[in-house]
Amino acid sequence: MRVLVIEDNEILSRNLVRYLISRDIFAEAALVWDDWLRKAISKYYDVIILDINLPWMNWLEICKQIREREKDVSIIMLTSRWTNEDIVEWLNIWADDYLVKPFEYNELLARMNAIIRRKNVNRSNTLIKIWDIEIDLQQVEVKKDWKIIPLSKLEYDLLKYLSQNRWVALSRQQIYEKVWWEFQVDFMFSKTIDVYVWYLRKKLWKDLIETKKWFWFLIK
User: Fold this and answer.
1) Within this chain, do residues 49 and 68 fall inside the same structural domain, yes or no?
2) Which CATH number does the domain housing residue 119 bear?
3) Is 116 exposed, middle or buried (0-12, 13-18, 19+ CB in 10 A)?
4) Are 146 and 72 within one domain?
5) Domain range holding 159?
6) How many Å apart are CA 62 and CA 179, to the nearest integer?
7) Distance, CA of 37 to CA of 40 (rounded, Å)
8) Mind listing the pLDDT tens digit for each residue in 109-150?
9) pTM for this structure?
10) Same domain, yes or no, for 65 and 101?
11) Cβ atoms within 10 A of the Cβ of 193, count?
């Protein structure tokens, strides 16, 4: 999970980022307007934690700009003031969840995990996400940083198979049978898979696919 914290309280922001990192979550903070805008545009995040009481821009305008650039990101609002009307507006229009200050960090983490679980259930059949890479199974296309990456059919099929079995070390035989739909003993010594893995690394990310003892391949 990748998280951006947009909060002008430096102490709260720093402590929250430290807590999330201690839970093996990639997290970073944006304390000023140009910082959050630059990060929100240039990087992919699963969750944005947004304080609605920022001094340098109205939170509605921030949400609008975030949604224009990345409709799929989840937004959790932080607020020290709230009414029933506020909550209805946040959840109906902009936010996925909210927390009233002061709050417990473990509750925030639980809400983040719940949002990600719901999103994964809703989209698991049509979309696979790996960091800033999206594999759209319905449209049969791959995006990196929101840009479509042209792939050949074999490149796409290989990436799809490895991604659908993420964290699993797949053998050359398994890959040939599922992607090339055939297997011969000669394939065990072929460099065909290595060539296509190299293509994907070059087009998407050099550390995307790991090789284990020459025989196994996996995406983490």
Assistant:
1) yes
2) 3.40.50.2300
3) middle
4) no
5) 127-219
6) 44
7) 5
8) 999 988 888 776 655 568 888 888 999 887 889 999 888 999
9) 0.55
10) yes
11) 20
Q: How many CB atoms lie within 10 A of CB 43?
A: 15
Query: Which of 63, 90, 123 is the C-terminal boundary of a domain?
Result: 123
Say whether both 160 and 76 belong to one domain: no
Q: What is the pLDDT of residue 44?
A: 73
Pair 219, 208: CB distance under 8 Å: yes
Report pLDDT for 213.
76
Structure tokens at 97: 């969840």
The answer for 167, left when phi > 0, alpha when psi is -120 to 50, beta otherwise, is left
Q: Are 5 and 30 in contact (CB under 8 A)?
A: yes
Q: Cα–Cα distance between 206 and 82 in angstroms, integer?
A: 46
Task: Please state the three-class secondary structure of 122-150 as a single string.
Answer: HHCCCEEEECCEEEECCCCEEEECCEECC
Please indicate, yes or no, whether residues 45 and 109 belong to a single structural domain of this protein.
yes
Checking phi first, is residue 2 left (phi over 0); if not, alpha (psi -120 to 50) or beta? beta
Is there a single domain that holds both residue 33 and residue 132? no
pLDDT in tens, 79-90: 876 666 666 766
